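Q: Start with the shorter request: fold the first protein.
A: Done. Sequence, then structure:
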Amino acid sequence: MRLAPVPMRWRTDLRKAAYYAALSSKTTHAALEAVDACRYYAVLIALALNGVSKSQLLVSNPASLEVFEDEPLTPTIAAIASGSYRDQKPPRIRGSGYVVHTLEAALWALSNTTDFRSGLLKVVNLGEDADTTGAVYGQLAGAVYGVEAIPSEWINKLAMREVIEVYAGRLYECSQ
């Protein structure tokens, strides 16, 4: 699941965020479930960057948004968007690296914790493909909680932190 800068750049245009996330996915993960997971997740991140609260993201069904009318999500991804992960727990929730499991795990961790740190620890402790599930969780949790919520000791250890911050600032400026 690859999203990188797409949601931030197109945060004010959900259709473009979904479209470019789909294109990004297709470069390495062209299966329809992977593409739709990226479309859906990009919209979630864009909404969070626009100030939609965590509870609104997790309680509402963003899959029903106008952005998905012309091209509905696959049934599996639509089920996740409807909250199928909410009543699950390990071992049903997995960090296997399979796009469906990764998306479920990230949303499950976000819905079952109250801060960036505890959610990230919860999702990576599922094991398996922990770096992928952690990265996917971190994208949305970062958009939901803000950079201030990320433990400073983690931020201070980032390689090329200054470069990352410059690019993030530029993407944000482009989205204005």
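Q: Next, the second protein, separately.
A: Sequence, then structure:
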Amino acid sequence: MTKKALVIGASGLVGSSLSRLLFDDETYDKIHILVRKSTNWIHDKLVEHVIDFEQLPFSSGIFQVDSIFCCLGTTINKAKTKEAFYRVDHDYVLDAGKLTAENNAKFLVISSMGANPKSMFFYSRVKGEMEQDLQKLKLPSLHIFRPSLLLGDRSEFRLSERLAAPFSRWFLKGPLKKYKPNQAQSVAQAMIHVSKEETLGFHIYDSTQIEKIAKRTEVTPKS
């Protein structure tokens, strides 16, 4: 039996990897994506929805799928203000979670290592509040992925990522292994694998668990 998937934030680092892997996955026969502007992708499985995310609460029909992958996220630099950052990384994600609950679908979302609603760091606190508020929705199947620093092919240059790769190979070992950066494709592979499992309830996957799951399902997209 084939299924339908929805990727929210499909043009981002993890979202684009995840979408392309789903195109080649026989489990899913329709891949809906929600984006701010068209990706110009062409694929038989693809159904693209270009929306204003402020209107997300009125998009219930799009959420009538089996699995929803939420890859939304921004940075303070891009958002410009803390309020705008919170809107994307908390409010939009929570809106998506509410629509998922209405449609009784599986919700898989990217958070971050160190997410904690009581953190002294704004970024980690927002991620923690997002996780906490999603849990209150009583989703039938909620899966939260907490990667470390994400690596991959971005459109913009990020010095921290360029420096992290060689540093992690030499110094992040043993008990520090959980701080090693995650490749975006590894996160995408882990999310897809978990989406196929008949697992109910609330689950969190840290960076090392993400890598273990990804290694079991390593696939290179054809598209």
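Q: Describe the second briefly.
A: The domain at 3-216 is CATH 3.40.50.720 (Rossmann fold). The CA atoms of residues 141 and 198 lie 9 Å apart.
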